[in-house]
Amino acid sequence: FTAKSEILRGHCERLGTSFDAITRSSNYNTVIGRDETEVAERIAAIEARLERFIGAERATKAVADLRNGTGLAGTSEQIIERLLAMQQLGMTYAITYFAEAAYDTSGIELFEKEVMPALL
């Protein structure tokens, strides 16, 4: 995000466009749980559902970002901390995708109840 923002800043300076007028966003695959155990269970459930359709190897790769920290996976507190840090870097809009939403909306509901109010 930081590197891309600096590239964008350079383009804006060259073109005479206001860098600060641009909404900078980031897109996240998102999994939230009440504790770390629930987060791990939710990721495992997503992986198991994917495995039926795309095989074990591709399913593991598909959820890797959730396990390695490039996705947005964690407890409410962890996600709030991460999004606030991104806000400090200039992100003003987070796009969140909840892969489990077709089967279970409790993650979205937890995000709405605990994360969103902390970001307003």
Task: Please provide a written account of the structure.
With about 120 residues, this protein is an alpha/beta fold. Helix content is about 60%, strand content about 15%. It contains 6 helices and 3 strands, in the order αβαααβαβα. The protein has a 3-stranded parallel beta sheet with strand order 2-1-3, sandwiched between helices. α2 crosses α3 and α5 crosses α6. The protein starts with a helix and ends with a helix. The model has no long low-confidence stretch (mean pLDDT about 95).
What characteristics describe this protein?
three-stranded parallel β-sheet; 120 residues; 6 helices
Q: What pattern of helices and strands is seen along the backbone?
A: HEHHHEHEH
Largest sheet: 3 strands, parallel
Shape verdict: globular
Task: Please give the order of strands in the largest beta sheet.
Answer: 2-1-3
Proportion of strand residues: 15-25%
Intertermini distance: 21 Å
- Number of E-state strands: 3
* Rg, Cα atoms, Å: 17 Å
Helical/strand content category: alpha/beta
Query: Count of DSSP helices?
Result: 6
Oligomer: single chain
Give average pLDDT, whole number. Answer: 96
Describe the structure in brief.
By secondary structure, the chain is an alpha/beta fold. It has helices spanning 2-15, 36-54, 56-62, 64-68, 76-88, 106-119, and strands at 25-33, 72-75, 93-97.
